[in-house]
Amino acid sequence: MDLVKLRYFYETAKVQNMSHAAKELLISQPALSKAIAQLEEELEMDLFYRNGKRITLNSNGEFLFKRAERIFAEILDLERGLREFREQGNGELSIVTTLPYTFTNILNEFLNFYPTIKYKQVPLSKDNLEQFIEYGKFDLCITTEKLNHPNVEWLPLFNEEIFLTVPSTYPEAKLESVHLSELRSLPFIGLTAEYRFRQLTDNFCQENGYTPEYQVEVEEATTILQLVKNGRGAAFTPETSMNMYDDKIKHVRIENGEFTRTIGLLKHKYTYATAISKAFIQHCYDYFENTHK
């Protein structure tokens, strides 16, 4: 089987549009159509349903697409290993995560030791997580949710406490700790309900008979503390995101039992682990040991 034609099929199947795939592959649409037709002739089977300009995978195409995805994931893994040998430790690092405060600090310190690496942060979406778990497309994943899957290993890094954060002008700012039942009706600022951290805090509150009233819901975690600082409301803040030196806000410990989450790494078991990715894992252990003793 011609690997070039298989690549043409794979890219076309991903977008299910000949003209878009041709642009992505930097070839003409007639050349792409001809290559796929030749592949179908070679395999003695159709791979797409064709309806004018619309194409969709048939059962043959779906079968081939799944296997082509694994083939190109293996090729990507091979390229990753060869690139490391060629670049002698400079390398590249791609990490799936949505922890802006924590990850910025970890990465900043890591770049002190490896200033020449090329780094890419990948959003923790459903599709990206699937690409990581199933095909090892990225090096590592930093998350607060343990996943049980035969392809990945969970490495817990740090169990962090979650605090109530209020503007320094609020009465709660005078307290060192508070029980949720003692809170007045505070306007809350937080992530939208689709986010895991919001679900975690909502569940904890509900279990303790308290329902936060969210006045502001945002998509960016970095916005939350800025709004609290400006006196717009209260928020729940994980320990690693706290700024202890900002006199405009106060972090208050919550007395309702253990209110925590665990930050951890997901490492793929079957893809090539580069020296840079191994060094980053060790750096994460060292970072939490040194900064959160």
TrEMBL record:
Domain HTH lysR-type as annotated: residue spans: 1-58
One Gene Ontology CC term in the entry: cytosol
InterPro entries for the chain: HTH-type_LysR_regulators (IPR050950), LysR_HTH_N (IPR000847), LysR_subst-bd (IPR005119), WH-like_DNA-bd_sf (IPR036388), WH_DNA-bd_sf (IPR036390)
Lineage: Bacteria, Bacillati, Bacillota, Bacilli, Bacillales
One Pfam family this sequence matches: LysR_substrate
The family this protein is said to belong to: Belongs to the LysR transcriptional regulatory family.
Gene symbol of the encoding locus: cynR_2
SUPFAM superfamilies: Periplasmic binding protein-like II, Winged helix' DNA-binding domain
Protein name from the UniProt record: Cyn operon transcriptional activator
Keyword field: DNA-binding, Transcription, Transcription regulation
Molecular function terms from GO: DNA binding; DNA-binding transcription factor activity
